Structure formats: C-alpha cells, structure tokens
Amino acid sequence: MSAGASIHTPVLAAEVMRFLDIRPGMRVVDGTLGGGGHTRLFADAVGPDGLVIGIDRDPLAIERGATELAGLPVRFAQANFRDIPEVLDALAIDRVDRVLLDVGLSSDQLADHNRGFSFDSEGPLDLRFDPTEGEPAWRLVNRMRPETLADIIYEFGEERFSRRIARRIATAREKEPIRSARDFARLVVSAIPRQHPPPRIHPATRTFQALRIAVNEELKSLRIALERIPTRLNPGGRLAVISFHSLEDRLAKEAFRNRQVWEPLTRGPVEATDEEIARNPRSRSAKLRVASLVAATPAAAG
Ligand SMILES: C[S@@+](CC[C@H](N)C(=O)[O-])C[C@H]1O[C@@H](n2cnc3c(N)ncnc32)[C@H](O)[C@@H]1O
Question: What per-residue confidence (pLDDT) applies to 48?
Fold first, then answer.
C-alpha cells in the first residue's frame, strides 16, 4: 500500500527551531519522523554538510519520508526511538548534536482507516504504530481481564469511568468479539453517562489513548529513550521532547531534573500560541521541553 502525501502539520515548529538552534554541518536525530515536517526544517538548517536521521516505528511514515524528502541530507530508519544507539551504530555514527522526540500519533495515522486510530473507522481497532510488531488493540480488549483493562484505561487515559467501560467491554465480547474501531467507540460511548453540556472531546478519546499507549508501550519507550540518549549526544548537545499527555510530560520533566546530566533550556513547558491552536487544533495539548547535555555519559551505560 502506498503511503501518499502527508497531511500532518508539525507542532511548535518555530519554538523547536529556536530552542534547538541547529547549525550547518550538525548531525540531528528526529526520533519521530511522522509526516516529516520537523525533519524537513532540520535538513534545511544542517545543509549539505550535515545529516538528519529520521526514525519512526511506522513503516508507512518511513516510506513516505523517503519519497517526500528525497534529495535532502536525510537517512531513514524504521525503528523505535528507544533504540537510537543501535540506529546510530548501524550508520557508524558515534554521537549527534540534536535530538527531537515528538511523541504520540500523527494526523496521517489518524486519517488511515486501516489503523483504527479514529472513532469512525470501520477497520480493525489496531492502534499500533508498527503494525508488524506486537498485539493489536482489538485482540487485547478481547482477551484481558476486565480489572486489567479498567486499570489501563484509568492509568493511561485518566478516564474516571474506566470500570464501567471495562464491564461493558466484558459483556459485549461475550456475545461477539470486538473488532472494528467504530463499534468499539460506540461501546465506550454507551458505557459513559451522558454529560451536560456535552464534552469538548469525543467521549471515547481517553479510552482510545489509553489502549494506544498500552499496545505501543509508549511510556516505557520514552523512559528508555530518555535514559539512553545522553550516551549518544555530544556535550552541549540538545534534546527536545514534545508530549501530548501529562504522563509523558512528567517523564521528560523528571529526566531533565537530573542536573548532573541535563541543563534545562525551557523553564516550564512551552505551549502553542492561540494563533497556532486556531490554525492547528492538535497543538492545543502539546508541551515542549528542551535541555542541553551537561556532560556526555559513557556509551557503555546505554
Ligand atoms: C506526532 S507524530 C510526529 C510528527 C512529526 N514531528 C512531523 O513533523 O510530521 C509522532 C510519530 O512518532 C512515531 N512514534 C511514536 N512512538 C515512537 C517510538 N517509540 N519510536 C519511533 N517512532 C515513534 C509515530 O509512529 C508517529 O509517526
């Protein structure tokens, strides 16, 4: 299947460029290539003497990037960003100058009805960034104990109706296995009491987010990446993390608190301006934190 052109708009692009201060000749890792928006800006900034390494778990993002960014100083790798050291080893690169992690989901993935990320997709509730690895969410919701499901929905989705939703899932799947994203979204909606006024977000948003975080082990990947990146950044090198969820933002905030490793360049999280939110509503919940590496930690520690 062909990936087609990207519809994703990069968030906080001006702020990322300001805090990363990318100069010609630098080596930069974009750990979340997505639609390639940030990568393109990085490639323009490093110029022909520099290099950007565009990583994504999603094979379609890599395929699209290779087409849309052809001719630019970019190398691509289909990998988890927690494996940045292995990606750099394969390219015979020791350390880099800048890293960006813009975590979560791209608009391209959301729009792809085969992936199950959107509430109205008839396709299976898959929710994996890399559809060739791990367990799709539909299988997880059909097999997990309701208590475990409720814990996931509560912890990763901060959904207060998690137990009701898990009970509804358990009853529904006794009749017929859950399969499509649309049917699952309807099931979730039916388990949540009607709210007045109606909520700003779709009532199934938190449950979808929780399952996505679980099937992709998103928090674990970010935690490992934050530990390993210092082993492959040059001293003074910079890491930017854009997150869309309080648990992810907390991981970045806590990692940057270690002043033996990081000097934070952002005081609090940098958020989108009203103008950006009006232009790109996805940016509403984005939080950017940037830090510079105080002293390189030995690669062996990675
Ligand atoms: C918000 S989008 C990135 C958008 C990108 N910055 C742009 O400007 O188009 C997030 C991307 O990160 C990828 N992703 C999420 N977790 C990942 C991980 N642990 N390793 C590699 N890629 C990941 C997703 O597949 C998705 O394509």
Answer: 97
List, in order of start, the domains of the chain with CATH numbers.
13-108+221-301 (3.40.50.150), 130-215 (1.10.150.170)
The pLDDT value recorded for residue 298 is: 63
Q: Using 50, 70 and 90 to split pLDDT, how confident is the model at 177?
A: very high
Return the best residue to mutate from 28, 33, 83, 288 for the ligand 1 pocket (most ligand atoms within 8 A of CB): 33
Query: What is the rounded CA–CA span in Å between residue 128 and residue 102?
Result: 17
- For ligand 1, atom 9, the nearest C-alpha belongs to 35
Mutational pocket test of ligand 1: of 57, 76, 80, 220, the residue with most ligand atoms within 8 Å of the beta carbon:
57
Q: Residue 302 has what pLDDT?
A: 41
pLDDT digits (tens, 9 = 90+) for 233-243: 999 999 999 99
Closest CA to 141 of 201, 202, 191: 191
Q: How far apart are CA 141 and CA 97, in angstroms?
A: 42
pLDDT tens across 93-118, in order? Answer: 999 999 999 998 999 999 999 999 99
Mutate to test the pocket of ligand 1, among 11, 15, 30, 32 (most ligand atoms within 8 A of CB): 32
With the CA atoms of 138, 185, 103 and 227 taken in that order, what torsion angle do they form, in degrees rounded to the nearest 10? -50
Ligand 1 closest atom vs CA 81: 20
pTM greater than 0.85 (yes/no):
yes
Question: 102 in ligand 1 pocket by Cβ < 6 Å?
Answer: yes
